[in-house]
Amino acid sequence: MGVFSNGGAGIDLGSANVTISLENEGVVLREPSYVLCLRDDTDDILAVGRDARQMLGRTPEDVLLLSPVMDGAVGNIDMAAQLLRRLAEKALGKRRALEKNRLVVTMSQGCTRVERTALEEAVRATGARRAALVRSSVAAALGAGMPVEAPRGSLLVTIGGSTTEVTILSMNGVAAARSMRTGSLAMDEAIMRYIRREKGVIIGQRTAEDLKIDLGNAMDVPGLYRQTASLRGRDAASGKPTTTEITGADIHKAIQPTLETLVENIRDAFENIPAELAEDILPTGMVLSGGGAQLDGLSDRLSEMLKLNVTTSDAPEDDAALGACAVAADDKLAQRLEQSGCLIEL
Ligand SMILES: Nc1ncnc2c1ncn2[C@@H]1O[C@H](COP(=O)(O)OP(=O)(O)OP(=O)(O)O)[C@@H](O)[C@H]1O
Ligand SMILES: [Mg+2]
């Protein structure tokens, strides 16, 4: 890219995070997918991303905290557009306006026609002059360095905040796929419920997420009960602030049912892979991507269950944005993906 030419930008618009990658720079921004606005005048945006999420659980009555992307799809077009535009401007800076860059935004495999139209509208509303949508699983596979072009199938499982996708890629396209509207966020909710039920303490989603990341393990490994955290919450009976001790074993128990559903869904999708493709996959195994893939012990658990080699990509949370950016920077690749139905020019 020359000094005066404009570059490509890839945006992974997820239900948990917006991640932005720029040509020649890599991932420059990741912020939570939240918008804070006035309840009576939703055009009045008070904050987006991290600044908005700070207000989670402590919003005054006259403000509204919204997640415009739910279950991997745009639920609120105007707010999604605001989120995209404001975070893109933050990442690009004034000197490289959105209008001048080639923008590629991810879309979930499982999104319906209506949801896709909503995403298209949100991307158009950002004012980007040259934009396209790419299937998030294909973007993640590119970002993870998988052989997407190869004439044999390769298997990718992405676990995001609220979507899980099992995809077999071959020849720049999707040979088979299953998308499920569940993900890592469901584990946060399970932890909140467990701590309320077993300890009588109410905690917020952010605390639950921290516990999942710090103490969570998909395997019942020895010594989990020795990993402890002291956490502050509200006593469920009295409403007063209180503290309680929690162990890795508690968190394992809390997430177990959710995790079981998740891995069973992956198993089911895996068992339904067409025979010819399954043959391609057995020697290479499965690649895990998406933020939720970072749960300790998850790759071991899947590997044990499926009797398959499972590897987690190097930067699971970055893959989709990196791949989208790679597409934005390479017209030939974009053309090939368009031919295979994985890319839509706007
Ligand atoms: N170390 C970790 N262990 C477990 N979970 C993690 C870890 N790090 C991040 N996560 C979870 O990953 C999720 C976010 O992943 P990601 O950014 O890929 O989701 P997303 O793309 O926004 O969502 P989706 O693809 O479902 O729309 C969050 O729920 C977060 O708690
Ligand atoms: Mg995602």
- Overall mean pLDDT: 93
C-alpha geometry: flat
Q: What structural class is derived from the secondary structure elements?
A: alpha+beta
* N-to-C SSE string, H for helix and E for strand: EEEEEHEEEHEHEHEEEHEHEEHHEHEHHE
Helix content: 25-40%
Q: Output the CATH class name of the largest domain.
A: Alpha Beta
End-to-end Cα distance, whole Å, is: 23 Å
Small-molecule binders here are:
adenosine-5'-triphosphate, magnesium ion
How many helices does DSSP assign?
Answer: 11
- Taken as a percent bin, the fraction of beta residues is 25-35%
Give the biggest sheet.
Answer: 6 strands, mixed
Radius of gyration: 21 Å
Strand numbers in spatial order across the main sheet:
3-2-1-9-10-19
Could you say what the CATH architecture of the largest domain is? 2-Layer Sandwich
SSE order and pairing:
Blueprint: E1 8-13, E2 17-22, E3 26-32, E4 35-38, E5 45-48, H1 49-53, E6 63-66, E7 69-70, E8 73-74, H2 77-92, E9 102-107, H3 113-124, E10 130-135, H4 136-143, E11 154-159, E12 164-170, E13 173-180, H5 185-199, E14 201-202, H6 205-215, E15 228-235, E16 241-247, H7 248-271, H8 275-284, E17 286-289, H9 298-306, E18 310-312, H10 319-328, H11 331-339, E19 343-345
Parallel strand pairs: 1-9, 9-10, 11-17, 17-18
Antiparallel strand pairs: 1-2, 2-3, 4-5, 4-6, 7-8, 10-19, 11-12, 12-13, 14-15, 15-16
Helix pairs in contact: 2-3, 4-10, 5-6, 5-7
